[in-house]
Amino acid sequence: NHIYTKEFPHSLEGFARDWLYYLAPRSITSWDVLKRMFLEKFFPASRTTAIRKYILGIRQLGGESLYEYLERFKKLCASCPHHQIYEQLLLQYFYEGLNSMERSMIDAASGGALGDMTLAEARHLIEKMASNSQ
User: Considering the entire predicted model, what is its pTM?
Assistant: First the structure.
């Protein structure tokens, strides 16, 4: 955690870097404190709630390939790294948002048992199918 605290400032630019350097001296006592303060400043609860709602209700757009949908889903999840949604639920929301044709293809490729696969197996299958849809 000490390494995170020391290296984190080097990853910041612009307003975020200024914010960090203008904090009161000795206000950062640990990585957890720094992380909490940063998230409160740059990811307010209202933004987190809005992104969580988008994740929960994501749908594949008309004409969007599996690859494009997966990339959009990943970017959405990455835009709020503290969304606190379990990986298994993320997979479920992604799957439920697929159009019926893509869902049928994934069902066929998984033998109708995507839910019985491990999370790693299911992710691998989806990644492989998405890369083939580019």
Answer: 0.76
